[in-house]
Records
---
Amino acid sequence: MSLPKVLKCGLELPVVGAPLFIVSGPELVIAQCKAGIVGSFPALNARPVEMLGEWLTRIENELGEYQALHPKKNVAPYAVNQICHISNDRLMKDMETCVKHKVPIIITSLRPPLEIVEAAHSYGGVVFHDVINVKHARKAAEQGVDGLILVCAGAGGHAGTLSPFALVREVKNWFKGTVLLSGAICDGYGIASALALGADLAYMGTRFIATEEANADAAYKHALVAYAAHDIVYSNLFTGVHGNYLGPSISAAGLDPGNLPVADKSKMNFGSGGNMKAKAWRDIWGAGQGIGQIADLPLVAELVERLKAEFAGAKDDFMQRISA
């Protein structure tokens, strides 16, 4: 297992809660970290730009106070996601704020700029970059990232099409840093499977949308309980980048989820939805193929305890199978 120093203690489970556009705020991040998994949020969720520093101060203070009151508890570090896209005109301003607060983990998306890696390393932070194929993984590694998030088939939001059996094993042949696996992981058995493949951490997003602390519309949360894998649609129409979305939310926007056009990338900005009235993430809901396993809307602490029990059960089942 290849984990940076910041993650070698404080984890109850080898899990990072993925940053969720709109959905992830201080409440969700704090609850995840208190429960012993890494909580994260996109810097762009904090609006206006000055709000980012306020969010970081709140997260740091509440986690510090909680740790002081519960010295024997595993309190995980938090992470901030930086969207490295030409349309993100506040990227470097947000990174300056992260450097000031010495954010433990920076998660980069879409492009792995060297200046972000250098800024994080200047104070001892680590950088994980999400990728969907080996070409992107090699480019990120060349920029000096500390970890690769392999976003495989079935992941919610922007996702790739490669099987984790292919991508994890190929990347592990040459990459010696931390490997995180994303793609339809919604229970403790999925976490155990990620580690069995060789990943160091499981990367879970959709399951945490369906929790009380998530900043998501109630209808969105209940839809995750009501629908299953066959309701997920893979399209690049909404942001110009291919991703997985909940089909019924596409229908509600007046579109046919079974007959979507291809995006005109020249008219797209990240998360904009182009010229459509319906907006990605706000109206068109991201979701992974693992939603068929979601049956309730618990508190994060309750969900993590359940994941821990399932993870332990999965390991026991595996040992019994190989010893039979």
---
Amino acid sequence: MFAKTKAFSGFSVDDRGAAKTFYGETLGLDVSEEHGLLMLHIAGGGDIVVYPKPNHTPATFTILNFPVDDIDRAVDGLTERGVRFEHYDGAEQDEKGISRGELGPPIAWFTDPAGNILAVLQQ
């Protein structure tokens, strides 16, 4: 039924302006506005809808992952732009917040202005 449908994902934020600045300027994504919504245009031609929600509750799981070739360079660059990385109790993370465990690739988590969890991970 949906095999040929161009599906897309979306998530909510409590402040569309702060989200536009964060995703467009801090993260450097191509962002547009349509009908009161933000559209994040990501590599590969996909779009993600970001919609304002007055009673927004931040996701308690990772909603968006950014694969990179060099996680240390990405984390350092984001830190220079004011991004703070999460440090989770019980997680084996270095001083930068990068988890380099045996399960999965090196990964570091951070939040957007609405508190949604994002991640950068080494391919």
